[in-house]
């Protein structure tokens, strides 16, 4: 009852203002809560939090007891309007991230409650919650200025250059878009609005419902061409490749977005995306909104969120690019939880700005996982100015039983991307039992990029890795020619290319290794040689550019005997239904090449040819899944030994 009283007092206090309150409740997983029907409760599948972006609520509950999802927390808090309260339910067992959540609670505007272990049910359903405020369409002077700028841009560049409106959440971007749609409708200008989902246009619909045509992102990017002014809301929540396709088809598109890291694309993507747009479209218009509209200026909840999740950019190092390229660098290896707040803030800001998908979830992982490390580069002997940082992950050393399950595709232990990827792809359970070091990300301060600092950092960590017991240092990334060349310059060898495009970047992932253990050097070289042997076909089937192919040139050669010995385990894994068709495809193509003309099933499957009705009828298949199974049966029937 005491928690009910204190929470109601916080709700009443917030309702009397346009600030927002925060309650952090720690409870065992078995404790059940009942909430008012007016509350938006996020629980279970927290990875679907993006569906609620763009909404506005007075009481939002995010239950993270089964999934400490920092991205969902950030989104949930920003849904709360002025006069509302956010409730965060976390496990009773404290870790570094939960300690961080509770250490910066705003005085007078927060509640921290630990449920007694004997508590089985907490009824909070009769809390009195104020109904969400009706949105006003009276624009502030700042919003009016942005509206006029967008109107002028459409008048001048509606077909030739995009405009991007960006701001923190709650600044009234969607309100401006709604009034813009209304204004265009009055001028009989057709308007097409796109967002990740229709429900995310709640604020825009409150002003301009029925005055535009909604088109889903995929349809706008690849479907029939739309006529009219194209507006994209929540742009950073779209996959990067979809957004790029939309801009290419509709150069005059108006985009609005937040960019606080918990959207599909991180802050680093938007910074790079804006640079590319400005280069491609010199007349591109960049606009922003600063003053909050959903809540009053100085809201303690927003201050808490930005402080806890490090969402705000930090000052860049006080050193010129010229000095940075010549001054000696200093280094420190550490765990993120041991860093001072200023250094942690600098490191995470670099990761946010330099990488397309860094999010608050990454901060949580860096703080909580003992296998994550940071290698930090400094420009000063006092080690206070961070110029670059590498996020490293120690992986592998799994039990042999789990390793065998990984090899059969039945287990994917979290935090072991490199170890399990190699074990599964090579069909060798031993690989998951070994110790690997994965370079998750390398980030250099934006003003200091292209000065060799990233290379210096990588050379340092490779030298340090040779003093430890790693088999190899590896990396897995969304590949592109320039990035491939960077890793090749440091003697990293490609050993696996992803069979599917990354959903955010529309690029193939690439796994590369730099061998550390001398007794494994021949094995890693063999993997790279096998990769090179299959890469020619992969380049054609994946439609890789000449520049991409050239970026992975000068790889080791392999004899047919060595290749067949390497391929045998993979083919056996495919026949045993351990290795899926997509990952076995390039090896199958090389081994079964002599049989392609005699076996139409092989040709259609391995060359990814369209399955017409006549082929399906002749082969007795209804789709690709049955076709791939038929390939497996053909392999078994041939009794292939390599």
Question: What can you tell me about this protein's structure?
Answer:
With 642 residues, this protein is an alpha/beta fold. It has 4 domains: 2-123, 3-Layer(aba) Sandwich (Rossmann fold), CATH 3.40.50; 141-288, 3-Layer(aba) Sandwich (Rossmann fold), CATH 3.40.50.300; 321-516, 3-Layer(aba) Sandwich (Aminopeptidase), CATH 3.40.630; 560-637, no CATH class. A 7-stranded mixed β-sheet has the order 14-15-16-17-18-20-19, sandwiched between helices. A 6-stranded parallel β-sheet has the order 10-9-11-12-8-13, covered by helices on one side. Strands 3-4-5-1-6 form a 5-stranded parallel β-sheet, with helices on both faces. β15 (372-378) and β16 form a beta hairpin. The longest helix has 21 residues, at 521-541. It starts with a helix and ends in a 5-residue tail after the last helix.
């Amino acid at each position: 009852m005491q928690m009910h009283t204190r929470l109601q007092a916080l709700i009443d206090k917030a309702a009397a203002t346009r600030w927002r309150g925060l309650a952090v409740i720690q409870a065992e997983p078995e404790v059940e809560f009942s909430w008012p029907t007016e509350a938006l409760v996020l629980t279970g599948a927290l990875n679907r939090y993006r569906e609620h972006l763009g909404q506005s609520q007075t009481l939002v509950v995010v239950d993270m007891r089964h999934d400490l999802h920092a991205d969902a927390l950030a989104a949930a808090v920003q849904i709360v309007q002025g006069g509302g309260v956010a409730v965060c339910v976390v496990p009773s067992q404290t870790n570094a991230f939960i300690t961080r959540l509770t250490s910066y609670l705003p005085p007078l505007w927060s509640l921290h409650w630990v449920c007694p272990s004997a508590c089985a049910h907490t009824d909070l359903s009769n809390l009195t919650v104020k109904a969400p405020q009706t949105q006003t369409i009276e624009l502030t002077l700042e919003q009016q200025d942005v509206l006029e700028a967008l109107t002028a841009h459409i008048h001048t560049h509606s077909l030739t250059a995009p405009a991007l409106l960006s701001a923190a959440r709650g600044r009234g971007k969607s309100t401006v878009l709604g009034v813009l749609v209304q204004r265009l409708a009055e001028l009989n200008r057709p308007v097409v609005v796109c967002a990740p989902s229709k429900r995310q246009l709640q604020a825009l619909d409150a002003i301009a419902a029925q005055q535009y045509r909604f088109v889903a992102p995929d349809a706008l990017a690849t479907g029939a061409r739309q006529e009219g002014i194209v507006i994209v809301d929540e742009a950073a929540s779209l996959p990067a490749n979809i957004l790029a396709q939309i801009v290419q088809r509709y150069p005059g598109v108006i985009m609005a977005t937040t960019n606080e890291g918990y959207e599909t694309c991180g802050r680093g993507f938007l910074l790079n995306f804006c640079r590319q747009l400005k280069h491609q479209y010199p007349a591109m218009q960049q606009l922003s909104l600063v003053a909050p509209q959903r809540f009053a200026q100085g809201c303690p909840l927003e201050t808490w969120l930005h402080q806890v999740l490090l969402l705000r950019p930090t000052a860049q190092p006080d050193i010129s690019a010229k000095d940075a390229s010549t001054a000696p660098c200093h280094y420190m290896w550490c765990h993120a939880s041991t860093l001072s707040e200023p250094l942690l803030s600098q490191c995470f800001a670099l990761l946010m700005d330099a990488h397309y998908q860094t999010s608050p979830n990454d901060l949580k992982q860096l703080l909580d996982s003992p296998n994550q490390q940071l290698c930090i580069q400094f420009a000063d002997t006092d080690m206070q100015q961070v110029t670059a940082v590498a996020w490293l992950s120690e992986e592998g050393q799994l039990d042999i039983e789990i390793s065998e399950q990984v090899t059969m595709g039945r287990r994917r232990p979290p935090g072991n991307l490199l170890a399990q990827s190699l074990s599964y792809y090579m069909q060798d359970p031993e690989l998951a039992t070994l110790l690997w070091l994965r370079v998750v990300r390398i980030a250099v301060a934006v003003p200091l990029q292209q000065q060799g600092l990233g290379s210096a950092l990588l050379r340092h960590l490779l030298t340090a890795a040779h003093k430890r017991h790693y088999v190899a240092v590896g990396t897995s990334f969304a590949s592109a020619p320039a990035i491939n060349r960077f890793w090749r310059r440091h003697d990293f060898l490609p050993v696996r290319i992803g069979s599917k495009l990354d959903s955010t970047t529309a690029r193939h992932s690439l796994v590369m290794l730099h061998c550390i253990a001398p007794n494994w050097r021949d094995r890693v070289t063999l993997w790279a040689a096998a990769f090179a042997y299959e890469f020619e076909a992969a380049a054609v089937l994946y439609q890789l550019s000449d520049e991409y192919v050239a970026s992975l040139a000068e790889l080791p050669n392999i004899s047919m005997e060595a290749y067949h010995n390497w391929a045998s385990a993979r083919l056996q894994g495919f026949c045993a239904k351990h290795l899926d068709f997509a990952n076995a495809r390039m090896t199958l193509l090389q081994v079964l090449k002599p049989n392609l003309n005699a076996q139409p099933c092989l040709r259609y499957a391995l060359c990814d040819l369209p399955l017409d009705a006549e082929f399906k009828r002749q082969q007795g298949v209804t789709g690709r899944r049955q076709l791939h199974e038929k390939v497996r049966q053909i392999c078994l029937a041939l009794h292939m030994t390599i």
